[in-house]
Structures are given as C-alpha cells and as structure tokens.
Write a structure and sequence with these properties.
Layout (H helix, E strand, L loop, with lengths): L1 H20 L2 H7 L5 H22 L3 E9 L2 E2 L1 E7 L13 H14 L5 E7 L3 E8 L2 H9 L13 H12 L8 E7 L8 H10 L2 E8 L6 E2 L1 E3 L5 E3 L1 E2 L2 E2 L1 E2 L3 H9 L5 E6 L5 H9 L5 E2 L3 E8 L1 H17 L8
Parallel strand pairs: 3-4, 3-6, 6-7, 7-14
Antiparallel strand pairs: 1-16, 2-15, 4-5, 8-13, 9-10, 11-12
Helix pairs in contact: 3-10, 4-5, 6-7
Length: 321
C-alpha cells in the first residue's frame, strides 16, 4: 500500500508541475512522445514484483507431510550465589557478573535440555523454573543481582534443598544435575546433608568455586554518588575468601559430582557442561510431530525478477513516426 501511495503521489505531483509549465492543449504537443499509460504500466509491474517478493519472504509452501521428531534432554538447574561477597572483583568484572556471562553462554548452546535458575544468599528464590524457553531463562538471569533475595548471608544447604524439593520432579531418578556457583561461604546450613539428600534422588552436583583462596578480596560497595567504598563489619573491612575444602565435600557427597576450583582464573562453563554433564547421557522426551512443507518461495521470487526485467525493458517513450 505504501508503494501504491508513493506512485500515486508521484503521478499527481508530476501532473501539477506540468500544468504549471504549460496549458493542457500545448502539453499534448510537447509531451507527444511520452506515454503516460506506459508509466502507469511500469509502476504496476514494480508494485506486483514487490508483492511477489513479500510473499516469497513469508516462505510459502504446500504438500504438508507429518514428521516425527524424537527429543532427548537433561534437567539442569543453576544455583547462583548472589550474596554481597560475589561482588568481589578478583574475577572481572566481578564474581557475580562473570558467572552470569558464562551461564548466558551455556544457555545459548543448550538444545532440548530444560534449564532452571535459583538465586540464593540468606534465603533462596526460584528465578526460573525448569523450562525449554531459553529466552525467558536469559531474561530471568539478566535481572538477577545481589538484591534478588530478601536476606543477606549465604545458606548453600537451603538452596540445594529448595532445588530438590520444589524444582526437580520425582518421575525420574536420572538425568538431573545441579551447577552450584559460589565462593563457598556458608552460615551453618548443613550443605553436605542437603547434597546427600540430593544424591538419593539421583541428582549430581557440579560445584564451581570462584574467588581468591589465599588472601581473599575486599567487597566493593558503590554509593549513590558513584563513589566506591568497601564493605565493613564492626569497623573492619571484610575480606571474602574462597572456601574450597567445603565445596569439595559438597560435590563429592553426590556420586558423579565434581568440584572445579576456578579461583581467580578463567573457566569455560560450556566446556564443563559438554565434558561432564552432557556426557552423562540424555533421557528420551516425548516425541513431537510437525508438519513439513515443500517450500515454494523460488516461484514467487522468480516471478518478481521476471516482472522487474520486463519493467526495465519497457520505455516510457512512444515511437513517433
């Protein structure tokens, strides 16, 4: 419609300008070799070609045939520590943001696996239940910050228990994994007991420990005016240190579980998934039947090209003897 309006305005504008140039009876002699009907015909060809191009872009097809697709996948739940200590900058830009970037990359490469996300600190919140909707999972992940939970501190055991009791189903004891990303600080939440309970339900724990293990790192706090200070407790700066030994015990409490001490180095969460999680096999999911069509967009693009070639070959001027 926009193209039709454009041509209509163009012809109208041309008519007005010619009326200003000369009287109608004189124009018939001046413009005797210009074919107005040819101009309209060329415009119609361009409009029709545009219509065929648009139809071709919609990927038209016919002769539908049913096709059955079998799907295999695992249930993967990410437990992400969002306590204040995850703001430490011994990983760039900080522990939390680095973890979010790696989780996003992992989601981008998933296929058929269900993904879920729990944010935890002093309490835990299911930010994304197990889903195949990877776009929603990334949106939920993007919104996670240290204020995603209502209470400070770190209770790893409570987060694992919430994952086992509220997120995973009891239909299958296999093909369920938890990726726990944390610096390992815990306030007596009995995480090993929680991991052992998860193991009884066939859930494996892959624990990724982030942060400096020796000296620790201060926790930056950005003020409203943009200035940066460091977190203090009873007048002294808090230094956050990776508790690697505790995290190893949590991972080993589940058969097949692994601990990966990232510390302050780089790590590839996608490679961890491929090497340790995906290699564990996938369960058969429900088969899906889709209708497959024979795509015929070539016909419409061919018609459009033919009309454009004809339009180029037609001259606006009449042959005058």
């Amino acid at each position: 419609p926009l193209l039709v309006l454009l041509f209509s305005f163009s012809f109208y504008r041309k008519h007005i300008l010619l009326r200003r140039f000369a009287q109608m009876d004189l124009l018939s002699h001046i413009n005797m070799n210009v074919g107005f009907s040819r101009q309209i015909f060329k415009a119609v060809l361009i409009v029709m070609a545009s219509v065929f191009i648009i139809v071709g872009l919609t990927q038209p097809g016919w002769n539908p045939k049913p096709k059955s697709i079998e799907r295999k996948g695992r249930d993967l739940l990410v437990l992400l520590d969002v306590s204040q200590s995850m703001l430490a900058e011994d990983l760039k830009p900080n522990r939390l943001e680095r973890a979010k970037l790696d989780i996003t990359e992992l989601i981008d490469h998933l296929s058929n696996d269900r993904i879920g996300i729990i944010a935890f600190a002093g309490n835990s919140v299911v930010k994304c239940p197990l889903t195949h909707d990877y776009g929603f999972a990334k949106m939920a992940l993007n919104e996670i910050s240290t204020i995603s939970v209502s209470r400070g501190g770190t209770l790893i055991g409570d987060a694992i228990r919430r994952a086992v009791d509220e997120v995973f189903d009891n239909e299958d004891k296999d093909f369920k994994d938890i990726i726990l990303i944390t610096d390992g600080e815990d306030h007596e939440s009995l995480p090993i007991n929680a991991a052992q309970a998860a193991a009884k339900k066939g859930i494996r724990l892959f624990v990724i420990g982030v942060g400096d293990e020796t000296e620790g790192t201060r926790i930056p706090i950005v003020q409203e005016d943009g200035s940066k200070t460091f977190l203090k407790y009873e007048g002294k700066e808090v230094w956050s240190k990776l508790n690697a030994e505790a995290l190893k015990d949590i991972a080993l409490a589940t058969p097949g579980g692994k601990y990966l001490g990232v510390k302050t180095g780089s790590y590839d969460l996608l490679e961890v998934y491929r090497r340790l999680i995906e290699a564990g096999g996938k369960r058969d999911l429900e088969a899906t039947t889709i209708m497959e069509y024979e795509e015929k967009f070539q016909i419409f693009l061919g018609l459009a090209l033919t009309l454009l070639l004809i339009e180029v070959m037609i001259s606006e001027r009449k042959k005058v003897l």
